Amino acid sequence: MTPPTDPSGGAASGLRMISPWRELGASSIDRVAAAGRVARVRRGETLSDRVGLALSGVIAVVDRMVDGRQTISQLLHPGDLFDLGTAPIEPSEALTALTAASYVALDEEVWRGLLGADRRLADASYARLGEQTRRLRRHISAIAFTTPLERLSATLLELRRRAPDGTEAAGQDPRLALEIRRRDLSEHVGLKPETVSRSFRQLEQEGVIAIEEKGLLRMIDVAELERIAQGGRPRASTRG
């Protein structure tokens, strides 16, 4: 159940800090803020809202199987849009917070009206959904055709690109706060948890990354991580 929402006004300030919404004019942001409400969810909670804009944390599209297993097909980060009004999810699917998260919840009909009345908002929304679709397509391709090490490397780089502003250190020493649990990461990349752990150890032993403390990862050799993600090493099995 979605918990009580924040007071009005939080939506506008949140959107002004997140791309691509911060590039919109003040009038467009204010329209969204007036139409929406900021909701907060705890790790593991399922969202009841069908349309919204992610403000903080990580929200996942989770597909649960009858035997208790689950897969995570998509990760939604700050700035991402979820719109399930025109494409209802299956009963086995849910939007679930992988971390403490917040989002702007929007009424479906009101959101449709905003898109029809504000061309800049509509263009930004469709562009964002298109970018999210491209990410999902790359993810599906990676699940099918890449090795565990390639898959993990690509996912770490994507998480780094999608990290909120300020989480990366300056210079050649980028850090990444791994907010999601390793179990969630394994369900997203389609690998067994032990395979993910083994791949982490390999990257760390080779000096590509370093796990400095719980949840904090330092990318020592970003170029090598990118080379691995792009298939620049001899290939082993794609199964994990």
Which helices and strands appear, and what pairs or packs with what?
Layout: H1 10-15, H2 26-35, E1 36-41, E2 51-56, E3 59-64, E4 70-76, E5 81-83, E6 93-97, E7 101-106, H3 108-117, H4 119-145, H5 148-162, E8 175-177, H6 182-189, H7 193-205, E9 209-213, E10 216-219, H8 222-229
Antiparallel strand pairs: 1-7, 2-5, 2-7, 3-4, 3-6, 8-10, 9-10
Helix pairs in contact: 3-4, 5-8, 6-7
Can you characterise this structure?
The chain has 240 residues and is an alpha+beta fold. It is built from 8 helices and 10 strands. It has helices at 10-15, 26-35, 108-117, 119-145, 148-162, 182-189, 193-205, 222-229, and strands spanning 36-41, 51-56, 59-64, 70-76, 81-83, 93-97, 101-106, 175-177, 209-213, 216-219. A hairpin with a 2-residue loop joins strand 9 (209-213) and strand 10 (216-219). Helix 5 crosses helix 8 and helix 6 crosses helix 7 (193-205). The radius of gyration is 19 Å and the shape is globular. Mean pLDDT is 85; it is low at 1-9 and 166-172.
Short note summarizing the structure:
The protein has 240 residues and is of the alpha+beta class. It has helices spanning 10-15, 26-35, 108-117, 119-145, 148-162, 182-189, 193-205, 222-229; strands at 36-41, 51-56, 59-64, 70-76, 81-83, 93-97, 101-106, 175-177, 209-213, 216-219.
Rg, Å, rounded? 19 Å
Q: What characteristic shape results from the CA principal axes?
A: globular
Tell me about the biggest sheet? 4 strands, antiparallel
Placed side by side, the strands forming the largest sheet appear as 1-7-2-5
For the record, give the distance between the C-alpha atoms at the N and C termini, rounded to a whole number: 35 Å
State the helical fraction: 40-55%
Q: Uncertain segments of ≥5 residues (pLDDT<50)? A: 1-9, 166-172
Mean pLDDT rating = 85
Q: What is the element string, with H for helices and E for strands?
A: HHEEEEEEEHHHEHHEEH
Which structural class fits the helix and strand makeup?
alpha+beta
Kindly estimate the percentage of residues that lie in beta strands according to DSSP: 15-25%
Count every beta strand, where a strand is a DSSP E run of 2 or more residues: 10
Describe the oligomeric state of these chains in a short phrase: single chain
How many helix segments? 8
